[in-house]
TrEMBL record:
This is Alpha/beta hydrolase. Keywords: Hydrolase. InterPro entries: AB_hydrolase_1, AB_hydrolase_fold, AB_hydrolase_sf. It comes from the Bacteria. One of its GO terms (molecular function) is hydrolase activity. The keyword Hydrolase applies. Gene3D superfamilies: alpha/beta hydrolase. Residues 28-269 form the AB hydrolase-1 domain.
Amino acid sequence: MDVTFEGTRREIATAEGILRYHEAGEGPPLVLLHGSGIGVSGWRNYRDNLNVFARHFHCYVLEFPGFGISDPVGGHPVIAATSSVTRFMDALDIESAAIIGNSMGGVVGAHVAMQHPVRVDKLVTIGGVGPNIFSQAPSEGTRLLRDFADEPTREKLVRWLDCMVYDPAMVTDERIEERWETAKDPSSHETLAAMYGSEAAVAQQRALETSDAPPYWAMMRKIQCPTLLTWGLDDRQCPPDMALVPLRLVPRAELHVFPQCGHWVMLEAKEAFERVALEFLLR
């Protein structure tokens, strides 16, 4: 398999613009959804895992609208991302698929599973889902994202990257530079500000205080597919106490926590995550 950036890069036109993605492997469909954050992309989240999963699955790494790669659309980034998943699956005639979602991608996968249960065979989340119970909200990582969204600098990017991992050696010069390059894209920064900027935080708090709608995580009993929650024990973006509510509410949920691991489980605990996720997906 040619599991390189150029060898896997694809795009497809939809009624709401072009969606770009990476495709590799044969077998049952597996859709991989990236997280949010500074200079993020699906390829950067999963490029080190794609070769392993593509040995068993027909993998699709979707690039969400508004992060500087797929065409942007209006609305809140999480809502836009959720609708893009079913739009993407419809465009490629994928009736149902397993989903792996990192952080925001896990939240998006949970939304798809709640709104369109027949479209999701199994769900694997990597941090992200659920509310803070014992840990501070906003978390350390979210506060660092807010600082960057309000006034982006390379130094603030490095501070946030350090917060994402347990092992500081993961924050290489290459990772810093590629993230900084994407973060300078106006579309990418607009999406980041809409999620994490100070103005967005005030608006979100106001909406919580005035709305009678329950938070998404309170509705997670609607997720009927087998669900694997994975977490880094040392996650400072989405601390592991967040896993307790979805673990209780999702009827067929199980949890695996990786020691000495931060937010990017699929990178920092690469081999262990792949082994655990494949056992679950192939079970």
